[in-house]
# Entry
Amino acid sequence: MEQHDVPLYKADVVAARILVMCLFMPPQLQVLAAIGTCVYFVFRTLRSGLRPSAGDLRWAGVLGGSYLLYVIALFFTPERNNAYAHMLCEQKSAYVLLPFVFAIMGQQFRLVIVNELRFFVYGCIITCFLANVDYLYNHFMIGGPGRELSHVAYRNIFENFTGIHPTYMAMYLCCALYITIFCFITRSRQDVFAKYTMVYTLLVFMLALFAKSPIIALVIAALHFLISDLRMIARLKWIFLSLVGVVAGAYAFIPFFRQRVLELSGLFSKKDADDLIQNSVNMRKLLFHTDKTMLQHYWLTGTGPGSMLDKLHYRYFFHSVYRGYWVGYFDPHNQYFYDWLSFGIAGISAMVVVLFVQFRRAVLSRNVIYLYLLITISVTFFTESLLARQQGVLFYSIFTSLMFFAAAPRATGTDS
# Structure
């Protein structure tokens, strides 16, 4: 590297760190940080004389193509829902813009961002640590030590402090685990100790939140890792046994984890089936039933994204009347249903195409972090409308676009 390039490289590193940590910033600062760093990297690419290939631009169009459905839907949205439909278009603009940003960005700058992904791990650890300190303060100093340890209170306090939904945070922690395990280079025993200290710390934070879908995704990723190379079972048996010990310890000493495990009995029992507040499994049953019933009427053409929530709210209003207490209003809590109800067959087909294209790229490039990230996102889609929030749109768009364009397909015989 030439001497005059050193300051520019340092600026690239700083910009990369800001981009991967913007998800932990307040909402307005998130957007400014993402826009600022993306503009910087595009400017650096063009100044370096690099130009995007036509193929990359076409792939960017595929990745962000679903956004066109939101634009088209504007012309068919009733006037009373027009403002909400415009807000959705603005909120989801990153869904189409970021794939083009990473398509234009030079490969050397994409790899700079990949090399700084460890700062995303640090962001996860610091955010969760501070949120747990805040919970302890609220529990012992404000609520008093006699107050019951409730997983509902824990998750509410966590979200109020961080501004991040617990399921989203658990998904971040999943991604941080993949980065730590596969990207952190260990050259000494101290490095190994530091690496696995971070792994166990991330796992404990994740178990405390106990968001079910990210944990299921983590188990699927672990099984794939072991099946893909059976020799790993013997080499890593003590590590996996220690992980089992961590889970057992979490069940014994983290009351939120134990409560969330016990409420899974709602999947197989009709007892307390009307307890929607304290048992999220029962609430999920109601959400699924409501989404499925509505899909029977709108499976072909959809309701339009601007009108979907109105139609769902009518149904939850009558659920409240039937039960005699306020159930609440919810979106589909399932990204597949969200797109299907919004746009009909066109919406779910577009989503399937985009996920297929990305899984294909992850497999061909043999990029395990990308593959496990997609598994985590795809599983979380079953329980959250991930792309209905700004944080979800940014996380999905930044990480999937970065991994897609930074990953180059490899020959079958090469090592990953």
Q: What stands out?
A: Confidence is low (pLDDT under 50) at residues 411-416. Residues 226 and 236 are 9 Å apart (CA to CA). The radius of gyration is 22 Å. The chain is about 75% helix and 0% strand.
